Amino acid sequence: MANRTLWRRGHRRTAPIRPTAVAPVACCLFLAAATACGAATEPAIETPAEWTGDINTEGRVTTVTNTSGGVWGGAGRLVEEASIGVLEGADEYMFGAVNGVWATEDRILVADTQVPAVRVYDWMGTHLFDVGRPGEGPGEYSEPVGVAVAPNGDIWVAEMNMSIHRYDDSGAVLATHASSTGWSVHTDNMFIMALDGVPYMLDFGVQEATQRGLPPIGRAPVEAGGGLGEIRLPPQTDFEPECLEYTHASTGEADVWCAVPFAPWEVTTFTPAAEWVVGAGTEYAFEVHRDDGSRLRVERWWDPVMLDPEEIDYERQRTRAYLRNADPGWTWDGPQIPAHKPAFERIFAGRSGRLWVERSLASGRVDGPCTETFPEPEMAYGYTSCWTADVAVDGFGADGRYLGELRLPRGFRSPEPFVRDDTWIAAVMDDDGTIRVKRYRLVTAIDD
Length: 448
Description:
Layout: E1 6-9, E2 52-58, E3 61-68, E4 77-84, E5 98-103, E6 107-112, E7 117-122, E8 127-131, E9 133-134, E10 140-141, E11 144-149, E12 155-159, E13 164-167, E14 173-177, E15 183-186, E16 191-193, E17 199-204, E18 217-221, E19 244-247, E20 254-257, E21 266-270, E22 276-280, E23 285-289, E24 295-300, H1 309-323, E25 346-349, E26 355-365, E27 387-396, E28 402-407, E29 418-420, E30 423-429, E31 435-443
Parallel strand pairs: 3-24, 9-10
Antiparallel strand pairs: 1-15, 2-3, 4-31, 5-6, 6-7, 7-8, 11-12, 12-13, 13-14, 16-17, 17-18, 19-20, 21-22, 22-23, 23-24, 25-26, 26-27, 27-28, 29-30, 30-31
């Protein structure tokens, strides 16, 4: 399955969920893929200065076992160099729901689904122009969720309804390719610009539906005429998600909810090199599947982050209330909430070959008001969690060696950040609730 996928038909507005949407009842959960204030204080990062591990090749599989230390010789950090966004002011600097970011050598591009708009800024954050405009005509969009720039300068914009628009480097419309699927889908990397300039769009396989009743989710190249080429599906694994069974009271149909809190799930990502990365949070290991049939398996030591029993009980109450919206008599009869968090929760790829593995650190109670209990099923919608956690990202080189740990600044949100070399572009929510798009420079112990 793909990371954090939202499915829907028609035009009803919903929000991404965690993890993959697995049943009709799932379509109204809201995900903030980052942190809030009030998380537990983590100890200082202490990464041994020297990388140690083992690299072994057998046949077409190379396994890199990261035993200790990191190539950086310590932790990395993100240094803010530019910020775009205001609490109040000109429209072009106010964001609603940023779902795609991109950067060239001198421009920053932002796709905002809520406004909706695709905006272009210079390297320091001054607004230059908008790409396209809202509407239903050629080059017009309603829910832009992805933006990318090809090597020739063409700007590509993807919509949640899987339509694709192409513009020149000044924003003039070149082509519009409408989707005929009838689906609206949102996942972290539904639209990828490959290093060779070929755009890849999310596409569905024709194989047997998955356990959740959804078709396999792959990526397909956008051809010159606007159609999609041969789909590339993620490698099949034997991973089985933890699922809870329930019955829709309105229809009497049985269904499954495959989002047990903190249960591991399979994570896939499609890289700019057109490779699939697949792993599951049951262990700290993932594989890179290459075009030539070879594989790179990356393993790393892992100290499970234990869950507070109070947070387990909190999530159990919330899940019970949530499922009782569909099945008023539902009781918990199935897999239990684990005692610790999964090894990782998301993998995203940089433009320079590095892979970034995101994991949640120890949780803590929030400082402000929150939803303490769920006496009524409806309270499980739009709730404010009483628990939060900081997020760490582990960097890995293209050769699979562990680089070091990077703590993300508070407020990082979906979508995946744009990462090229040491430049990071990310959407961040400040303490005042203002969404900003920020440019960072990655600094490591090597740089210091």
